[in-house]
Amino acid sequence: MKQYNAIKAKYPKALLLFRVGDFYETFGEDAVITANILNIILTKRGAGSESETALAGFPHHSLNTYLPKLVKAGQRVAICDQLEDPKQTKTIVKRGVTELITPGVSLNDEVLQSKNNNFLAAVHYGGKQLGIAFLDISTGEYLTAQGDQDTIDKLLQNFTPSELLVSKQKKNTFTENFGPDYLTFYLEDWVWKDDYAQETLYTHFNTKSLKGFGIDHLNHGIIASGAILHYVKETQHHKLQHINKIQRIAEDDFIWMDRFTIRNLELYTPNAIGAVTLLDVIDKTSSAMGGRMLKRWLSLPLKNKERIETRHEVVDFFIQNTDIHHKIGAQIALIGDLERLVSKVATAKISPREVNQLMHSLDAIAPIKKIAEASTQDAVKKIGDALHDCQLLRQKIKETLCEEAPVNILKGKTIADGVHTELDELRGLAFSGKDYLNNMLDRESEATGIPSLKIASNNVFGYYIEVRNTHKDKVPEHWIRKQTLVSAERYITEELKEYETKILGAEEKILILEQQLFGDLVTWMHEYIQIIQNNAMLIGQLDCLSGFADLALQQNYTRPTFIDGGALKITNGRHPVIEKQLPPGEAYIANDVYLDNHEQQIIMITGPNMSGKSAILRQTALIVLLAQIGCFVPAEAVEMDIVDKIFTRVGASDNISMGESTFMVEMNETASILNNLSDRSLILLDEIGRGTSTYDGISIAWAISEYLHEHPCKPKTLFATHYHELNDMCDTFDRIKNYNVAVKETKDNVLFLRKLTPGGSQHSFGIHVAKMAGMPQHVVKKAQKMLKQLEKSHKSEDISDTLKQSQEEEMQLSFFNLDDPLLEEIKNEIIDIDINTLTPVEALMKLNEIKRMLIPSKQIASKNN
Questions:
Q1: What's the rounded Cα separation, in Å, for the pair 130 and 167?
Q2: pTM higher than 0.90 for the full model?
Q3: What are the residues facing 78 on neighbouring strands?
Q4: pLDDT of residue 203
Q5: Among 160, 415, 441, 473, which residue's beta carbon has the most beta carbons within 10 A?
Q6: What domains are defined for the chain?
Q7: Are 419 and 402 in contact (CB under 8 A)?
């Protein structure tokens, strides 16, 4: 326990799995946590004594079963192994931590998800700008960037790290900026120093500069990157040859989407349990590399027209050449996770069976290379030329390993026959023992005249000869008796003992030799790490584009056309997710959308709840996104200019845990949009202002629409609202057009047609929706009665007239006080004054009256005194 406590003191924030014989044990608070997570028995060590402590453990061979459960529960786990053979020491066995596994630093297949990266992130605060870095130790991907808080927030949303590193000094600041949901670990302040970070990176990459990686100007990004490498090495991961480059995340190359947009569009994270995301619908990849790459493409859509159209051309080629498409697709399906397999080569954690999997995956690449090289499509041909067939590597593995090599090198035959002469001889000695023993048995039976001799072995005294009691008088004197049974006796001979020593020695030597030869093979494979990583990247690209072709063929997607001029024209567009979830036989109601910066910049969409306004908004954004990741789109035709920013404000979302109401969240998100506009922005606003009073809401919605219309950038905007008063904006603002989602009204019901048509709507049909939802009849009838009364009483007070008059006369009264009764009274007083008959004295008296209305009489008296 003294040894345990000394090691635990070095890893206070990790669960320490302490190897004792054939078990991994945990003690004290660690044992309580472990037993709870793993649902294993919690016992006590030294029960009743002063040293009593909680104890929980499991067999060492069950580590791969239990370890992932601990890591998935958010625990950091330090594995403390025996560093020497207990047989070789008479004192306490030397122990030490051989690996520290955390949610962000793991190579265990049970912890990792095949189509998701497992990123460790670091955020460095550098004044106005922040640095960020991401590392997936299981694939070798290493990325960095720097920017303002919004940029870092967006990247954290995109990459969803499993674990995040921050300076201890910035613990509270980070939570204030980015919320409490990230699993964070806090490093000492000295780790976040410029010179230490640079030296760490120089040492790792064996360079004297970072210019070759294009990140030398990212000072804050470099510090974050250095902190990650420091942490990885602190967790006892020193074999990192697969991390051989660091890349800059060039924000200028990708569509800007803030965290609200990423969340609202449900690209890859659902907002509700069981909800379907866009990624779920479009993912037709068949390899782990393709799945991870597709998620990256979706989180970072391109702005470069040439790169986008290159992807479209490959998808088009696959659609037109189905034979090539199917052949490549069939081969990709045979390829394992090359990135993670080669990472295990670098970290020396690969098993013999996984080396064979790697070989078979490389075998499957060879036909793809031949097909792609012969292609008439330039981009496919380039991929074919860049793929490496790794023939020498494949041949070496085939010659060295058995086809049925085991998962664990200790559990079966790993090295093939004919590879090593001494190994073959030892195997001959160890595994031809049955013949040798049979020959010995025949000789001894003939020499002694005992017909029923039997040779066997046990763990107590090894090999023995068993003689039944009826023949024990014939046993020779040189046999040594070892055991007496009821009906027989057991003996050993010198020859048998010598043979046993040879057999046991051979088995031990075979194991040592196999481990040595396998280790040599894995070390030799290191020179192929970068080649295999490059192959993995190319196969991932082919897999994504092949998947896009499958998607287009299955779902009737079309190729978008890119035009200059800033317009977006969607003909019969569909929502890719909703379309897939419709009942069989039910067709999706497609809609046209046209936006530009000159004539139809803002579309004001009115219509009842449940009519499909939000679906039209979302599908417009998703069609643009799909087009700019290189995918075909769910529409009859799309003509569009490159979009550089997408903003959405869709749906109500409270942030009560952070102390913000629905309305506050709505205003925060809308403010973010209005402060970051560009002339190529696409803005989608849904029900802005509904979180406050009607008058406030209409005023805010009107002001926002006006701001967007008058902004020099003229951003393309879809604005869905239930404030029908906003329909009148088109009379004043020439680039605002009214549309409504059509409904068919019957005597007692309403039918949603879900078709976008020109013109505004004057009804919300909210009571009809309440009725459809199963609201009690009494409530529905009461609501209808109240609606008629309200409509009657408010007929003469047209709010839109007030707003239009406000705009025309440029009145400076606050939007937020239009319903103030005092202002209304003052207005009426002023309107009733006949200026033509008013004397100067009467004017002063009238002004004093108005002043009294605004300032209480006591204040006036004190001022006069």
A1: 12
A2: no
A3: 16, 100
A4: 94
A5: 415
A6: 2-101 (3.40.1170.10), 124-252 (3.30.420.110), 421-521 (1.10.1420.10), 561-802 (3.40.50.300), 820-864 (no CATH)
A7: no
